[in-house]
Description:
Number of helices: 31
Helix content: 25-40%
Strand order of the largest sheet: 6-5-7-4-8-9-3-10-11
Number of strands: 26
Largest sheet: 9 strands, mixed
Low-confidence stretches: 1-9, 84-88, 343-350, 853-868
Distance between the termini: 63 Å
Mean pLDDT: 88
Amino acid sequence: MKLSFPHQPIPLCWAKTDDAGNxxxxxxxxxxxxxxxxxxxxxxxxxxIRALAPAGAVTLAxxxxxxxxxxxxxxxxxxxxxxxxxxxxSFYESNHAKVSQAHLASLQGSRPxxxxxxxxxxxxxxxxxxxxxxxxxxxxxxxxxxxxxELLKELMAAFGxxxxxxxxKGPWVHWLTGFITFCDWIGSxxxxxxxxxxxPLADHETSDSAKAKAILAVGALGxxxxxxxxxxxxxxxxxxxxxxxxxxxxxxxxxDNPGLYIVEAPMGIGKTEAALAGAYRRWTxxxxxxxxxxxxxxxxxxxxxxxxxxxLSNVVSDISIHALVHGNAWMHPDRILSISPTTNDEEGxxxxxxxxxSGRKALLAGFGTGTIDQALMACLPVKHSALRLFAxxxxxxxxxxxxxxxxxTSALVDKTVKWLLEVGCTLIVLSATLSSxxxxxxxxxxxAKELQAxxxxxxxxxxxxxxxxxxxxSVPSANLASFRVQIEQTAANADTLWPIFADAAExxxxxxxxxxxxxxxxxxxxxxxxxxxxxxxPFGLLHSRFPQFQRDENEKFWMNRLxxxxxxRPHGCxxxxxxxxxxxxxxDADLLVTDIAPIDLILQRLGRLHRHPRPRPLGxxxxxxLILTPPVDWAQxxxxxxxxxxxxxxxxxxxxxxxxGRILAQIYDKTIRLPEDIRxxxxxxxxxxxxxxxxxxxxxxxxxxxxxEMLGTAQLGDVFHAPTExxxxxxxxxxxxxxxxxxxxxxxxxxxxxxxxxxLNGERIPFRMQSYSRFDYxxxxxxxxxxxxxxxxxxxxxxxxxxxxxxxxxxxAVLAIIPTDSTICQLVGAEENAPFQLQYxxxxxxxxxxxxxxxxxxxxxxxxxxxx
Length: 868
């Protein structure tokens, strides 16, 4: 497209250059290509999204780069161009996304439609923190706007009009941004849209030729392949399970409409299978397609990834992709799985896997398992959050363990539920310990309310899309086995308790002890092992302060020993752990010992007790739980109460511990009946007594203040107005009052002339410092396998002094050398008089000491240790 002015002809405007910087694709051709991709993607949308998506979305995608027709952009590759009309101008807007947005806004008068923001944000963030429209600085020139106008007419002729009404800033404007980004990524891939190799810049594309290429590109990508076999029975969905349980039957029966489904049911009752079977019904009867299964942590995501893959391999009828989606998923060997009903297209499935392997693309796969964080970032001001919202739209979203989050993350969950429902998703929310107030907030996010709160348990609460009142579906519970746990609150007195546990283990009991911090778990392990040095007992320790390779090995070992199968179970053992085994872990204890914790977490921990039917040792036929409860005078001052609670006061709100202790003490027969008592205990923990001891009231007020702060902060995270941050998992999704960093453990020192890096796990990676200016996958894998996450303050003095190549392979990390004859971690770049010294022992993991306490090998400042 060329225009001639009295001064001179305007050269053709370029959009893409080759590697040498030579213009090889015109703006005209690029916009036609992206519009064609949008047209083809729209044809392949699920029925639900086609019915809801804004009209004009395809044309809007085609216009995304018309802002490249501007002096500021064109001068990037044509420094010798001369624009007589612009002489004297010292500045041109070089951000073409801003120019595209401003041009479209200029066509609409003084109050432009909000959907113009979608064009401005297609590079991953909106052009300004306040989403203001830029003012074009093109002097008196007429040619940029005239050329953009001519191109816009052609695009509208090819793909239809732009949206004809305002779409208020919210989920659909954000969805449009993600849609444009997705189309731009496909249309910019030279595998399907190659650049010209030589000759002058020219317009080659027509709408028909662009559409032909787009059909091939989108088809090869397989983004739309989400079809499943119809008419499958429950036993066919889950081979080995003959009949669905009442909860599973009830949820399948309930899911006759898109909307929100909240499932409250006890641990181990089959909520996962119920949710997957419900998703299957929506796929076969509704307009939803695809799945994202969201869990609280990377560890729980990894564990359920294989279970979901097994399910999908039974039901998916097309060649599709199941992706593991979280910040460290790239380390998982099966993070991108090709699901194929036949074996005659393995090459095509492999090509699909390659495209989805990068972190930002994985969520676009038809089926996914990952962390809740990846879904929450769809509604937060982080880079490419709009692409996440687009990727999730129209899918069935399962959110597991929804009770696990603090008020900040819970508020983000509510916003995410609201937005996902609006963009065509059906949501299934799972919890064993959900309070009625938390259920009500989820219903409010769905635009509904309860006419009368149900006290039934188990319970399914349903909100059909577009309805303002929820439905309550009671689940038959007569066939649920009543599980009675004898509880006993006792002080954590090592002199009296540890010998009892050792005797019980020697008699054949498998004992699980859950402590609230790593330091407490390490100290418990040391004391028990020391007292039992003459006894032949298996001991184990699970926590998050082992290097990743060792943590994986330990967890796999103990889940095998204490899981469902009898043949591997030891005759007596003691496993000490932190919250890493609190939920979504198949560990079965004969006797459970736990630190005091909030009531919902105590109930979750009870799920590790007598988990499977099996013969129990003499004296352990009935489930029993000892709750280590420090004696606290809640009428005392704040400092005294914190000292009495010990490290637990830094992990959980002290008022929640007060409530837990008060409620447990009031259980008249010292027996918790599961599932009958779950609802009652959860609701009691939410009710504040009218009269509180002075100290408890102080902590109640502090908790209320913190909750208000969390909720206020959550409200500030608006995608259109808040500054955009990098999309690092956990950066904005969690209330992080204790920043962390990584400690990478090497066995031998290194220097620039080293030939190999010797890691703690025995790996030897060739060290080529000169070639590490770019990412090296084997090196990055070794670094992460040998890394331990620790509180940032312990190693912050060494962080700025790390070699440059390290930061290219692992973020926020410090190298540490552990000689074979020592436990001391020698930090690279550490100060001689650093305040803390870190040590590593293969049995206990990483621990730290203050420099004035190095006279012994173990930390004595346990109350200072609030990491777990």
